[in-house]
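User: Predict the complex with iron/sulfur cluster.
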Amino acid sequence: MASSDDRKEQTPQQILKDVMRLCADCDTCRTMMEEDCAFFLELYRLWDQEHEDGVPVTESQLRYLAELCTLCGLCPCPKIPMDVMEAKSRYIEQEGMPLATRLLNDVPRMARLCGTFPKLVRAMQSNKVFGPLLRKAMRIHPDRDLPSFPKQNFFEWAARQGLDRRQAGDHQVTYFVGCTAGYLFPQIGRSVVEILQHNGATVHVPPQQCCGMPYLVEGDRKRTLHLAQDNMKQLLQARKAGDELIYSCPTCGYFLKKLLKERAYYSDPFQKSVDAAEGELKVPAPEKGEGQFWILKKSMYHDILKDDGYFSSIDPMERIRLSDHLFDFGMYLTRLHAKGRLATDFAPMPERLAYFAPCHMREQKMGRPYLDLLTLIPELDIEEVGNDYDCCGMGGVFGFKDHFHQKSLDLGEPLMKKIRDHAPQAIVTDCMSCRLQFYHCLPYPVYHPVEVLAKAYRSA
Ligand code: SF4
Ligand code: SF4
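Assistant: Here is the predicted structure with iron/sulfur cluster placed in the model:
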C-alpha cells in the first residue's frame, strides 16, 4: 500500500490495484457484502480471475470496477470507498466528464430544462421513436421510470413565502433543502417548514447549491470542492448569526456532516485547539463520553493519521464546525422533544406503514429518530423493515444508467421482498433516491417521515 506522499503520484489504476490487494488480503467483504454491493462482487471476481485463472485484470475492467462504488457507506472501512472516489477523480481528470453523466446529476439544470422543454420530457417518457433515442443519448436504461418535475419547485415557493430572507424571531432555523426535495419533491421541503413553524421557529432558506455528493461519486473533484465550499460558507454564516442548521436529505447530511469532516481531527489547527502535547495526537472519542479523547503517539501514527484526504484543501476547523452544528431534521425534532418543546398535538392516524432507514442515514449512527417521532402519532402502526445491510440498490442516480439498471434492481430485491411480505399501506423513508426505486419496484405510495408528521399536525 502506497504511503500518503507516494499516493499523490499514483495513477487511478494503481490506486484501484491497491484497494483490490487490501480487500483480497482481508477478505471480510467477500462474504459479508456479496449480496449488498456490486463493487465487492466484481472486485473478488477480478482478483480470482487474475490469481486463480492467471488472466490479468484489464484497464477497462478496472475502470468498470470503479464505476460500481456508489459511496453508500455500508462497507466497514471508510478508507476503501474514499480511495475509489480518488481513483474516479483521477480518471475524470484524464478523460473529462461525459455530458450525459453531467446532465443526469445536475438536478437543478434538469428541472430548468424540463420546465423549458416539457415536450422533450414527454417524448422521453412516451414517444416510441424519440423516447429511446433520447434515453440512449442520456445513457438512461429504456425500462427505468423517470420522475416528473413539479411546476413550482421548493425554492420558488420558499421565495414567495419570504423564506429566502432572514426574518426576526427568537428561534431561527436555517434549512439546507438539497436538490431532490428542492426540485423533485417540494412537498417534503414544505412539510419541514410547516413542522418548524408549528413549533414556533422562524425558517430561513439561504442561497444553496447541490451538496456535492453526486459529483463526488462521479469523480468531478473540482465541482465537488467548489459546491462544498459555497454551501459551507452560507451555512456557517447563518450559524454565526445564531441560527440552528438542519437538513432533511440523509445523503446531503452524510456528505456535509460526515464525509467533509473525515481526517480533519488529525490537522495541526485541530491538534492545537485541543492542546495536544508535543508528540501526541488527540482524537475525539465520543464512545468514552463528551469531550473525551484517544491519545495516540505521533511517532507511530503520523504517516497514516494526516489530514490529507479528499477534502484537505478546505479549512479543517470549518469542516468540524459545520459538522458539529448541522443536524438531521429528525434528530433536531427528537432533541426538541427531549427538552419538552415539541408540539405533540398529532391527530390519530389509523394506518399501517413500513419504515426503511436508508444507508446514508444509518451511516450517521444516530439511531432511528424519525421512527421514534412517528410513534408519537396516535393509532399509527409503523414498523421498521430491512436490516443493517439492506439497500434499495438505487445508488443515487446509478439506477437510471443503462449499464447499472439491472444490477440496481438485483441489489434491491431482498429489501423489496421484505416490504412486499410486510404489505404496508405505504412506505416511509427519508431518502428520495430510495423513494424513486420504491416507486419503480413496488405498488405502494412512499412518503418522507416529515410528510406524515406534517399531515398529523394538519389533521389535528
Ligand atoms: S472494505 Fe475493509 S473489511 Fe471489507 S474487505 Fe476491504 S479492508 Fe476488509
Ligand atoms: S461504499 Fe457501498 S458501494 Fe462502495 S464499496 Fe462500500 S458498500 Fe460497496
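The mean pLDDT is 91.
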